[in-house]
What does this fold into?
Amino acid sequence: MEFKRLYREIKTLLTDVTDSPAYEARVLLELAAGGSFEDMMFGNGYVLSAEELQSLDKLVKKRLGGYPIQYLLGKWSFMGRDYLVGEGVLIPRDDTEVLVRTAISMAQQIDAINIFDLCSGSGIIAVTLAKEIKNSRVTAVELSESAFEYLKRNCAVNEAANVLPVMGDVFVCFESVPDRSVDMLVSNPPYIARSEADGLQRELLSEPDLALFGGEDGLDFYRGIIKNWILKVKHGGAVAFEIGDTQAGAVTDMMLENGLCRIKIVKDIQGYDRVVCGFVE
Ligand SMILES: C[S@@+](CC[C@H](N)C(=O)[O-])C[C@H]1O[C@@H](n2cnc3c(N)ncnc32)[C@H](O)[C@@H]1O
It folds into this structure.
């Protein structure tokens, strides 16, 4: 089939599963044929081989079945840098930019150097902070073995030598961190309530449970981190969490009860509460 017609057909099929059918059709064609979309589209009538068509068919079926385009592509961009992604690691979300921008601004206020990113996943937060905050050292803590592999590789591909990836459980590994030694604590922990699991988007089902669920009410990690880690942060140090849009009140209360002050709630571009942050008294 003529390339342009094939492209149009795939684009139409993808409208059922994505808001960006043109972009995704282009990605799938490039993956199947291994060439540049522009060359195939605007060159001299590119025709996919039988093998390439078979591979395209598989990719399109997978995508129509709800498999994320990011996993098919094997990488995704966050704040101008590329990160390797695949099964076993959470896909970077644009929403997380609110947390990273808030953390950068807090770090500048207090000259933060020793930073911890808890529940680090692919490493988007740790790497961006390490790159954007002068002289910083970022310890990135992640429990999942497969996510940890992505974290290490993403530090390497982004040349973030000032990130120290640590495989550990945030409910346990605080014990080895000296009290009042950390300048800033940042975390985008799993925060979906287990009770909401049934209503989740199809794409989310391909992502690891360990990255999504924060206990029955979604707040387990905020409880655990605030209880165990605040003592690790210096007086005057900063703490910032990404939150689910209904969790600002509960997380603010926990922070106030545990010696944090100047608490602020930051909204995302759609107007939802996305970050709660504050300073240790
Ligand atoms: C919501 S994802 C966030 C990933 C990344 N920080 C981001 O913003 O894209 C939460 C991450 O926490 C990790 N995780 C879950 N339980 C953990 C634990 N007890 N200790 C450390 N990491 C944990 C998951 O494997 C997952 O990578």
Remarks:
- The CA atoms of residues 71 and 87 lie 7 Å apart.
